[in-house]
Amino acid sequence: MSALRRYGLRNLPAIDDVHLLVPAERGITSTxxxxxxxxxxxxxxxxxxxxxxxxxxxxxxxxxxxxPDLDAAVAMMAEAVRDRHCLPSAxxxxxxxxSHIDERLRWAMMPILGGAHSVAEADAWNLWARSGLPEFQWxxxxxxxAGRFVAKPDGWCDEVALAWEIDSxxxxxxxxxxxxxxxxxxxxTAAGVVVLQTLPSRLRSEPDEVLAELKAAFESARRRPRPDxxxx
Length: 232
Known about the structure:
The protein has 232 residues and is of the alpha+beta class. It has 2 domains: 2-114, no CATH class; 120-231, Endonuclease, Chain A (3-Layer(aba) Sandwich). The chain has 10 helices and 11 strands. Strands 5-8-9-10 form a 4-stranded mixed β-sheet, sandwiched between helices. A 3-stranded antiparallel β-sheet has the order 7-6-11. It has a two-stranded parallel sheet with strand order 1-2. A hairpin with a 4-residue loop joins β8 and β9 (162-166). α2 packs across α4, α4 runs antiparallel to α5 (103-114) and α5 (103-114) packs across α6. It is elongated.
């Protein structure tokens, strides 16, 4: 985790141990808060604040392996990609080059490769994957016929111009965030876009109900003429 803090990542578990990579032939062992891992895949270090540090993809996957739960691992991978510390493909390569890794981590990486930028969006991606609906894209920018920005939906079905927003009550219901959400929804309406808003908690507590709502929203969007909106 200490390497990721040096790169500026914030969404990290409260683990204070230092994870130290050393060549496989070295006889150094762990002690105290220092966890030593001998490896035959020692990466070329990046210097951060004068300290040799593993590159972001290696640091993320090493931290994800030691995360307290899968949500924490997804959160780290999503933040690294969302804030452009690394490409999702670099994380995938780092996972695939390991001979021994928890298969759940490979599964957890799939929504990130698909474009999800958070744990909630990963939940939405997994629900969409069960839906049988046409392709959804994630975090793309939508513009109207005049080239005006409409929104950057969490999920987007371009076939029928359907937006899916995973809107948390805490973030979207207060102050400037509330006003921004109302303005976003007004732009959707003006552009003729059908939008479904879902609370993140319902993706796990009521997945079947959310799936039914998503399919109903898709059918509603499919029945009307597709508006002249496009991705850029």
